[in-house]
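Lab meeting tomorrow. Look over both lines:
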Amino acid sequence: MKLSRPARRSLLVVHVTASASWLGLTLGLLALGITAATTGQVAAVMASVRSMGLFADRLLLPVALATLGSGLVLSLGTPWGLARHRWVWIKFWLTLATTAATAFALRPGVHAAAAAVAGGPLPDAGAVLTGPGVSLAACVFMTVISVLKPWGPTRRGRRRRAAARGHRDAVRGGARPTRAGHHHAGSRA
């Protein structure tokens, strides 16, 4: 499947917006977690943890799913491909793992902290700091590899590139210029 240029651009805007939102929400969760862990005021702890629950339930998971879905469609509908470049492949699996961790670890941890603070002070600061901290590190790492695009193609990507190069050479009649501008033997030069 190849996306048209308008579809690709629109989906790219959705993907970047969702990714930036995920990063911002994660920063917000971490700020609320730090507030809950460091303040001595029970009302501030309760408000911070309840806000974290609201963000995690209503915003974070939908934004994570939008990032995952738009990234998957973009990778399948563009020349980057899902398994052609290592950075795309790593980013996909890390996005999938971080989305799953959001659903099955971060949200339950925040809900457990909210239940715990209903009866008094926050018993375990790790419940409100670990999830957002790990999520933030993952989001920053994914942003970095999206910008730098390190590590080159995967084995599959190298095979596809070689096959495309072979097809191009066959269409051109076998002439392949070398770095010095000379043609390989058997070419029409």
